[in-house]
Structure formats: structure tokens, C-alpha cells
Description:
The chain has 371 residues and is an alpha/beta fold. Helices cover 40% and strands 17% of the residues. It contains 11 helices and 12 strands. The chain has helices at residues 2-18, 25-39, 41-49, 59-93, 101-123, 161-173, 190-197, 222-231, 271-275, 294-299, 318-324, and strands at residues 128-135, 146-150, 178-182, 209-212, 235-236, 240-246, 249-255, 284-287, 304-307, 332-336, 339-343, 363-370. Strands 1-12-2-3-4-5 form a 6-stranded mixed β-sheet, covered by helices on one side. It has a 6-stranded mixed β-sheet with strand order 6-7-8-9-11-10. Strand 7 (249-255), helix 9 and strand 8 form a beta-alpha-beta unit. The longest helix has 35 residues, at 59-93. The N and C termini lie far apart (50 Å).
Amino acid sequence: MRLVVFGLPLLVVILNWLWPLPLPLGLKVIAAALVVVAALYHYWSRLSSGSVFAPEFPRPVVILFNWAFGAIAFLMLFQIALDIGALLVALIMWQPVHIPVAARAAVGAVAGALSAIGVANALRVPPVRDVTVTIPALSPAFDGYQLVQLTDMHISRLFPARWARAVVKRTNAAGADMIVVTGDFIDGSVAMRRADVAPLAGLQAPDGVLAIPGNHEYFFDYGDWMQHLSELGFHMLLNRHVVISRGGARLTFAGVTDRSAPAHGQAGPDLAAALAGIPAGAPVVLLDHQPGDAREAAAQDVALQLSGHTHGGMIVGLDRLVARGNNGFVSGRYGLGNMTLYVSNGTGLWPGFALRLGRPSEITRFTLRAG
């Protein structure tokens, strides 16, 4: 399967697009070699750090790799479309298959431009997106309560300290009562990312900063990360909850570990444990990195679930495939009985495929309203 996934783009781009172009043979060989190097980006990443999830190259190199990898993917799709179109024309006109050089040049230019736009969209510091959620059982004391969700920051060589500092500044400026982070803080070990995550200690909200792990925390020394994030000021909700009070009214925030935890020898998500002992009548806001189990949460009378993980599908069209791997949940708001599920597009993005087209990153500010 891996051979098909990585071999098909190489065959299409090199043999169907590059080789028919009227270029000197030496230039074609050099270009083909560059295509192969770009297509093996994740192999080079593994060599650089021991993990495909943490390319330890200078940031401009990581950006260039992402652009080239995206351009190859788009070019493969466009060239296949050209091939099919040319074949249909040849069959209808009963003539030899022919693709003009101008058409090949055009799809190459479009693929490169789309990839560049996608990478630029991925790298930006996201704007604040406002979402209002009505919770029927919410006490009037909490009407207008605001919380900001960050998720999938994937702090790395691609999203370094400078980017993290800007995210912290924008998040604090949102003026929420609570900040929550729903996992995938990083790509890399504590030793690799210590300086880059340091700005996160500056996140501040009157009711604190709550967080849960995502699947990527388990890829890189999970125990070390839980300790380090706690030292940075995050209250980690590992199958636990906290209660916020306003006079006699209460609001519960619960969090669970990630579905990938058992595969790494850690405790998996336990919603029953997270909800054990919550005050009667206190609506529950659940933090769960992956949205796939949202129906189970709705059955437990959770009022609002905040998730990430999907990155919104990253690209329109691709999001439909991502949704299928997450029980249909990929981006935005979903109503599940009395529960609202919100799946954030993410604040950052995995540096192995950092492109966004039509699925923008976000810092999400929720305003809770009493029903």
C-alpha cells in the first residue's frame, strides 16, 4: 500500500507530466531527481529526528518540502484529469491522444500556486472565530460565559516559539473566562521543543487554563510531556473534571485521554471516571481530542463537547475522507440530541502535510447562553 501511495504520484508526475515536456534530457533528469527527493519528505523527516512527525530541518526547508509535496499531489490529480480528458477527446474524434505542452505547463503552474496558497494558509496565526452555544440547563449566572479553545497547535520547527507567542497574545486578547487546549500541543520531545512551547506559559484566563493530551503527545515521551505541560501552568484533565462556581451555580469541565493511549501503554479515555462525582445539575463541557466518540458522550448528558484532531480535513474534498475516519465528524458544529459537538479546524497543523484550502485554522471563542 505504501508503494502505491508514494509510487503513483512519482510515476504520474515524472512519466506523464515531466518527461513529455520539450526540455533537455539533463534538465529532465535533474527535475525528476528533485521530484523524488520531495516525494520522500517523510523519509528524510524520520532520518532527521527518528519520527515522521518531527522534521528537524530549518523552517524554510520544512516550508519548501511542504510546498513541493503539495505541488506533487495536486499535479498528480491534474495530470490524471488531463490524461482522461485527452483520452476521451481522442476516442470521440478518433484521433491519436495528444496533450498540448501549454496544457501541461498550465496544470504545473496551477498545482504550484495552489500548494503555495495552501502552505501560506496553514502558517498564519489564526483569527478568533466566535461561536455561540445555547445550553438549556445553564444557570443564568453563567449566561455569557466565554471560553477559548486552542487545539492541534503542533508546535515544531514549522510552528516555532515566534508563532506560539503570537497565538498566546491573540488568545489572551480574546478576554475569555477560561482557556482550553484539546490536545496535539507538539511534534517532538520535550528536549526538542522546550524553547518553542515556552511562550504557552503566558496563556492567562480568570478561571485558568485546562488541557488534555492529543494522540501526538503519546508519540513523544508522554509522561515527560504531561509533567512539562503541568509545569507550564496547564491543568491536565486526564479522565478527570473540575467545577467552576458562580455563587451557587456550577459548571463542570471534564477531560479524557486520547483513544490512542492504550497502544502506548497508557490509560485510555474513561468518560465514566471523568464524570464521576460531578455536582447534580451542573452542565458538562467535555474536552475530547478526537470527535469519534461524541455519540457516547451525548448519551451521558454532556452539554458541549470540544474536539480537534481532524484539522477540519485541511482541504475541501479531502475533508470528506477525513470525516469517514471520524464517524462523520470533521469540522464545525454538530447537534447530537441535547449535546452540541464542536470540531475545531485546529490552530496549527502537522508539519508533515501543512496545507489548508477552504478549511481555515482557528482560535475559537465560545459564548455560552442559558436556554
